Amino acid sequence: MIIEGSTPSSTRGNDLVKSGAWSLPRPRPIGPPYFSRSQISAALHQVGVLLELKGANPFRIRSYQNASRLISGLSDDIGELVASGRLMDLKGIGKGLGSAIIQAVEEGRWAGDWLALHDETPAGLIEMLAIPGLGPKRIKMLYEELGVDSVAALKSSCEAGDVAPLKGLGEKSQQRMSDGIELLSRFRARRRLNVGLAYGEAFESRISQIDGVIKAQLAGSTRRRKETIGDLDLVVSALPVNHEKVSKAILSLPGIADVKGAGDSKISLILEASLFDEEFSLGNIDDNVLDAIGGADYQQLEASGTIDAQIRLVPPEVFAFTLAYFTGSKEHNVRLRQRAIDRGLKLNEFGLIPVDLAGELRGMEAAQFSLPAQTEADIYRHLEMDYVVPELREDMGEMEVQQLPELLELKDVKGSLHNHTTLSDGEATLEEMVDAARKLGWEWLGIADHSQSLKIAHGLEAEDLLKQGKVIKSYNDKFSDFTIIHGTESDVLEGGKLDYSDDVLSSLDYVVASVHAIPKWKNRDESTNTEELIRVMEHPSATVLGHPTGRILQGRDGYEVDMNAVLQAMSEMKGSKIVELNASPYRLDLDWRLCKRAKELGVPVSINPDAHDLRGLTDIRYGVDIARKGWLGAEDVLNSLSAGDLLQQLAN
Ligand code: DGT
Ligand code: CA
Ligand code: ZN
User: Fold this and answer.
1) Is any atom of ligand 1 closer than 6 Å to the C-beta of 323?
2) What structural domains does the chain harbor?
C-alpha cells in the first residue's frame, strides 16, 4: 500500500542530498488551511533564495523576501486571513503572490512556477545552501565562474585553491568554505545524544497521542543512550485494522520536513525543528566548547538542522520482538540470535519461533508460531537469561556475566561536584546555583570555578577563591539541610603542575584537575600525556581528574592518552583519587567504555554537569545515562553519597 501524498517531494533521487528543509513543505492531509503560517513563510523564503540562485530580477526576489518576513511576523491565523479575504489587503502582498498563497492554503497545492523553480535548480546548488555562511549569491558565482555544482565539487575547488582568486573572495573565504563543508558533513553524519533524545522523545510523545496507537517507543542507539546518534528508530504498536489510519496521522504530524518512503509497516522521514512546540534551543554553550564545534556556523546549522527517523508499525503481539530488534545493538542481536539457535529457536523482528514448527515459513507467516512475548523481558526469559536494559546491549560482557549490576538511577543523585558560578565564567551566581540544585532535590552542590591561569574563563585569583570559601562557610553555618562543597577546577600547568599554591589548594574540600591547553596536548605523544596526567594526580591535593581526554563530541578528538594506565595508576595512589564523568552532552568524558574499567579498578566516578548556568545542572541526566551504559551502580559514584560521607571521603 502506498499512502496518499507520501511520495517523496524531492524526486531528484540523489540519496546524498538530504533536501529536508529545502523542499517546499508538504500539505497536511486535513485542511484547509493546508499549510501553517510558518510553512507559508518558509516557502516564500525558499522561492526568494531559488530566484536569487537563478539570477532573477532583484525586485522580484525582494518581494518574496519581504512577504516571507511579513507573513512570519503576523499574529493572525493564516486560514482566517485567506478566508476573510484580508490577505490581499496586506501591504507587500501583490496579486500574483497573493493568489499563490491562497491556492496553497485552500487547495494544498503550491504554485506551478514555484515547483518548476525547484525542479529546474540543479540539486547540487540547493545542497550547497546548507553550507554555513554560504549564500545564494556566492553559490551562483561559483557555479558560473568555476562550474561548481555540488558540495563535493566545491570541496575539490577549495582544495585546488581555485576559489581564493575569484573576485571578492580570497584565502580567508576559501578557508571558511572548506571549514563549512567539513562542519556540515560532520553534522549530517551523527548528532549528539541530547539532540537525538530531544527529537526522539518529542516525536515519540506525538505518536503516542494518535488515536489507535497502543504504544510508541524510541528504539535504536537513542534508547541505548549512545553518545552520538546516526538516526532515530521508533516502533509503534497498533491493531492491523488501524495501521492505515495511524500511518496517515503520523504523516500529518508537525515537524516532518520530508517523507523518504511510506509503506504498510515502515515509514522513513526527515524531521525538522518545527516538531517542537516551543522554539528548539539547546541553551547556552560554553565558549570553549562552541569554538570546538564550529562557533556561530554551528549554531546556524543546529537551528535549521534535520534528523532522519525510521518508524515501524506493527501489531501488538509482535511489538516486543520488533522493539528488541530495532533497539540493537547489532552485536547484541547477533549474540541473542545465536542463543536462540542453541535452543532450537529462530529470533527475528517478528518473533521467537521454534524451528521445527515453522519449517520453511518466513517473516510474519512463521511468526504465527512464535513463543508469546508481551515485553522484552519475556524474550530474555525464553532465552533463559536475565533482562538486559537497553543501555547495556552492546556485547560488552552482558551476555556472559553471571549477574548484571544494579544500575545507577537519576533519583540516586544527591549532588555533583564540578560546577561554575559568575565568579569565573558561569552565568548564575552561587545563590542561584544552590537554589536550582535544591529544586532538583539535591542535598549538596560542589562549586569548582576556574583557576587563575585560565584567563579566558576569568579564573579566580587565590584571594577571590579564599573569599568564596568564606561565603560558602557562612552559608553552611546557616543551613543544615543543604551543603555547599568548595573546590576549584585547577588548570593543569606546564610540566603537570597544578594552579595555586599548595597552601591554597589544601584549604579546599577538593580539587578538580583539568587540562585546558588542548592544542599543546594534542601535539604530543600518548606516553608523554599519560605520564603527565599521572603526575598531576599524584599531587596530594588533586582529587578529581576533570574531563579526562578533553574530547568535544562532533568537534574534536581528545588528546592521546592511555586512560587504562591512568586509571590503573590512580587506583594505586594514596588517598581518594576520583575520575570525572563529565555529563555535558558535548563531552560525556570519561567514555562509557572506560567507566566499566574504573569500576573494576575501584576508582570512584564523579558525574559532573560542569554547569555554567542553571539549565546546565540538568545535564546530569546524560551523565547518569552514560554511567549506566558503563555498568555503574549507585555505589560506584560519589553523587549518591550524603554530604557528610562525601566530605569524609574527600578528606582522605
Ligand atoms: P545509529 O543509528 O548509527 O546511531 O545506530 P543504531 O544502533 O540505531 O543502528 P541503526 O539505526 O542502523 O539500526 C537500529 C537497530 O536495528 C540496530 O541497533 C540493530 C538493528 N539492525 C539494523 N540493521 C541490522 C542488521 O543488518 N542486522 C541486525 N542484526 N540488526 C540490525
Ligand atoms: Ca538508529
Ligand atoms: Zn574545564
Assistant:
1) no
2) 10-121 (1.10.150.110), 124-189 (1.10.150.20), 191-314 (3.30.460.10), 328-392 (3.30.210.10), 410-651 (3.20.20.140)
Sheet strands (E) in 205-364: 215-218, 228-229, 232-237, 256-262, 266-272, 306-314, 345-347, 352-354
Question: What is the spatial distance between Cα 240 and Cα 258, in angstroms, rounded to a whole number?
Answer: 25
Average pLDDT of the segment spanning 409-417: 98
- Report the alpha-carbon distance of residue 242 to residue 313 in Å, rounded: 10
- Exposure string for 616-641, b = 16+ CB within 10 A, e = fewer: bbebbbbbbbbbbbbbbbbebbbbbb
Per DSSP, what are the bridge partners of residue 485? 446
pLDDT band, very low/low/confident/very high, at 10 (cuts 50, 70, 90): very low
User: How far is residue 87's CA from residue 85's CA, in Å, rounded to a whole number?
Assistant: 6
Angular region, 334: left φ>0, alpha ψ -120 to 50, beta rest = alpha
Instruction: Return the amino acid letter for 479.
Output: F
- Give pLDDT tens digits for 117-147: 988 999 899 989 989 889 999 999 999 999 9
Strand residue runs (E) in 526-612: 544-545, 578-582, 605-608
In this prediction, residue 1 has a pLDDT band, given cuts at 50, 70 and 90, of very low
Nearest one of 465, 514, 508 to 489, comparing CA atoms: 514
Smallest-distance ligand from the CA of 200: 2
With a 6 Å cutoff on the Cβ, whether 272 touches ligand 1 is no
User: Could you tell me if the CB of 268 is within 6 A of ligand 1?
Assistant: no
**458 Rama class: left (phi>0) / alpha (psi -120 to 50) / beta:** left
Beta-carbon contacts of 646 under 8 Å, excluding residues fewer than 6 positions away, are 415, 444, 485, 638
DSSP state of 131: S
CB 126 within 8 A of CB 19: yes
In 421-540, alpha helices (H): 430-439, 462-478, 502-506, 518-522, 526-538
The residue whose C-alpha atom lies closest to atom 1 belonging to ligand 1 is 230
Determine the 3-state secondary structure of 419 from DSSP: strand
For CA atoms 95, 98, 103, 106, give the dihedral sign: negative
Omega of the bond leading into 316 within 30 degrees of 0 (cis): no
Angstrom distance (rounded) from CA 642 to CA 646: 6
Backbone angles phi, psi at 143, to 5 degrees: -65, -45
Q: Which helix (H) or strand (E) holds 52?
A: helix 37-54
- Please choose, from the candidates 539, 512, 543, 517, the residue with its C-alpha nearest in 3D space to the C-alpha of residue 528: 517
Cell numbers found for residue 322: 520488533
Best substitution site from 333, 341, 629 to test ligand 1's pocket, by max atoms within 8 Å of Cβ?
Answer: 333
Ligand 1, atom nearest to 196 Cα: 4
Geometric angle at alpha carbon 435, from 432 and 441, rounded to 5°: 145
- Read off the pLDDT of residues 623-637 as tens digits, 9 standing for 90 and up: 999 999 999 999 999
Residue 478 makes CB contacts below 8 A (sequence gap 6+) with none
pLDDT for 17 beyond 60:
no
Alpha-carbon torsion angle 489, 491, 492, 495, nearest 10 = -140
Cell numbers that stand for 55 in this block: 539570477
Q: Evaluate whether 472 touches 479 at the Cβ level (below 8 Å).
A: no
The residue behind cell 578533553 is 550
Which amino acid is present at 178? S
Confidence at 243, pLDDT banded by 50, 70, 90? very high
Residues 551-578 as b/e (b if ≥16 CB within 10 A, e otherwise) read: bbbbbbebbbbbbeebbebbeeeeebbb
Instruction: Return the SS3 of 295.
Output: helix
How far the first Cα of the chain sits from its last, in Å, is: 68
> Nearest bound ligand to CA 513?
3
Kindly state the cell numbers that stand for 256: 516532518
